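Hello Y.,

Per our agreement to keep a running log of every chain we model this quarter, I'm adding this entry. I've kept the format consistent with earlier entries: sequence first, then predicted structure.
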Amino acid sequence: MDGIINVYKEAGFTSHDVVAKLRGILHQKKIGHTGTLDPEATGVLPVCCGKATKVCELLTDKDKSYRAVCRLGIETDTQDMTGKILKEYDTSGITEEKIRSCVSEFQGDIMQIPPMYSALKVNGKKLYELAREGKTIERKARQVHIESIDIIDIDMGKYTFTMDVTCSKGTYIRTLCHDIGKKLGIAAAMESLIRTRVSIFELENAMTLSQIQKLADEDMDRLKEKIITVDSLFPDYPKLYVNESGAKYLSNGNSLKKEDFLDSDNLKVKEGQKVLVYDENRCFKAIYVLNGREYKVKKMF
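Predicted structure for the entry above:
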């Protein structure tokens, strides 16, 4: 099975748990996820199967959207409510206006210091492994981009607010909550997190592992219909189809010229532009990029 499954990761599962369970359900080993979700977080986790594993890193680079609940007045060692509470702050001076004004300042390019409880590696060891040993090391701030950040609800009785965030690769929503609290002059921790979108994969179309298992048991063809093809991930890329002469070059991953494609006179591809290339049977085979007068292979599938 080659393609991407839109999995709804439930709380309590790690991303690796999801991959392991899918290997058992689909009876195939070549499966990989597209970006770690914390065990207590839920939501969209695209999982690549078969030849689609080649696009795992491409999906990791895509913008993602989240819905997070932020709890004000609490500082924890993990920056979320699963961690040890380090300190509690007086929140009586915080108003809805202050929250909205503060949150709006985080839109655009911001600097974040990755949390100690994260999967980033330093000298071959993951930060969370060091954190569990009671160690804290210096981390460099990194620039991330917050495309949009919108407050959905504020509950002053519980001193929580809910926000929708669309952000770039490498953004930590836990750290965003922490930094908002710090800017308000108190503290904050993430109370819950749902990932609502990764690229074209939306929350409403995601399937739980039990739903996938049921489909696999009852009708594998119906499950295959839920699999997203690799070329669907790149709707903006032009589609090019090779002719007979181009087919042999494509099968070996060789460079292609304008005359190797059908309707070559109609090609309107710019220098450096990526294209989807299909074989003589109109099956998707590769991503190429125009380099001068030739199309060079970027990724074969």
